[in-house]
Specification:
The chain is mainly beta and 353 residues long. The protein is built from two helices and 28 strands. The strands form seven sheets. Strands 11-12-13-14-28-24-23-18-21 form a nine-stranded antiparallel beta sheet, with no helix packed on it. It has a six-stranded antiparallel beta sheet with strand order 17-26-25-22-19-20, with no helix packed on it.
């Protein structure tokens, strides 16, 4: 196990940003910066033992400081959308930053993805370990409560990257955190992910309206393009004549996991037939957002000068359901004083012969 810390650059106000690289005994490397908790790279082998980067992003801090769709970042306080940019909690209505007007997305205009997190790196229980901490002030982007957040990344020799979130608040609030990595198991220059084979342990999903806000319905996937219960190529039905596909311009939907929050059950599995690389996702969260990079348009230039075109990568964002603060039938995201928000997600990398 090895952990390295290097300077990644400086913010416009002069504060230094660092890059931490976790490496296991198998040669897998994960680089994370304390700016936004961004996973900037994951270097993993293919079936022939050739290593390459399997997440989309940029070569330097400058790219992450410019406008981009949350590549690799921790998003919060609330991952995904909140309708109308508001919610009522204990009889009080709170109005949030409407950064995707008229709605609220991924914590607002200045969410956790733009915070400079306090970092502590080292080895713990034989694992390369990075602990990040951030304080979100009462009223931050419209949310109530002073929230203390901790994100811990660790890498083991089973090729598992583990992300543990913890949070507390001094007032009732809502919280829903995730990591927003974009994966292409063939490598960032591999083109699109339409041939990646995806399986999801989900018999249902939450349909959305034209603004990609869940309607409150929980619908079975059977007989629809949302059925990934058996391994299916991502591109097989991505342009189907289906209302939900048209709403998302592809996949941009929350799936209701059948795993019951048990970490010994695989929630999602992705296989790249070309390289043989495999990604397995396990999580304590009740949902997972499948997003297939439908709005990438080639305008962003990333690592090694690669142009990020439509559907060049996919996201598997473990989460509570979008708009839960306004849909009482969805699992609650309320965090109250004296309670601790806990969430764990594990990404395991392997190969298929």
């Amino acid at each position: 196990m090895k952990l390295e810390r290097n300077r990644f650059g400086n913010l416009p106000d002069g504060r230094q940003v660092d890059l931490y690289t976790l490496t296991n005994d198998n040669g897998i490397e994960v680089a994370i910066t304390n700016y936004g908790g961004i996973v900037t790279s994951i270097i993993a082998p293919d079936r022939h033992g050739e290593f390459t980067d399997v997440v989309v992003g940029f070569d330097d801090l400058v790219g992450y400081l410019a406008d981009h769709p949350y590549f690799g970042a921790i998003v919060g306080r609330y991952a995904n959308r909140i309708a109308g940019g508001s919610f009522e909690l204990d009889g009080t209505t709170y109005r949030l930053e409407r950064n995707i007007h008229p709605h609220h997305l991924h914590g607002g205009e200045v969410g956790f993805d733009k915070a400079l997190w306090r970092a502590e790196a080292g080895q713990r229980d034989g694992l390369a370990h990075l602990r990040l901490e951030h304080t979100s002030a009462d009223g931050d982007e419209g949310y109530p409560g002073r929230v203390e957040v901790r994100a811990a990344y660790s890498l083991n020799n089973d090729n598992e990257l583990r992300l543990d979130f913890r949070a507390t608040s001094d007032r009732p609030t809502h919280i829903n955190l995730t990591n927003h990595s974009y994966f292409n198991l063939g490598g960032p220059s591999n083109g699109n992910v339409l041939d990646h084979e995806l399986s999801l342990e989900a018999h249902s999903f939450t349909p959305v309206n034209a603004h990609l806000i869940p309607t409150g319905e929980v619908r079975e996937v059977v007989g629809s393009p949302m059925d990934f219960r058996k391994p299916t190529a991502v591109g097989a039905m991505i342009d189907a004549d289906d209302e939900q596909i048209r709403m998302g311009v592809g996949y941009d939907h929350n799936f209701v996991l059948d795993t019951g929050g048990e970490l010994d059950r695989i929630a999602a599995r992705v296989v790249d037939p070309g390289s043989g690389r495999v990604l397995e996702v396990r999580t304590t969260e009740p949902g997972i957002q499948l997003y297939t990079g439908n709005h990438l348009d080639g305008s962003l230039i990333g690592k090694d000068g690669v142009r990020y075109d439509r559907r060049c990568a996919l996201c598997l964002e473990t989460q509570h359901f979008p708009n839960s603060p306004n849909i009482l039938d969805f699992p609650s995201t309320v965090l109250r004083p004296g309670e601790t928000y806990r969430s764990t997600t594990i990404y395991r990398f392997g190969v298929k012969p």
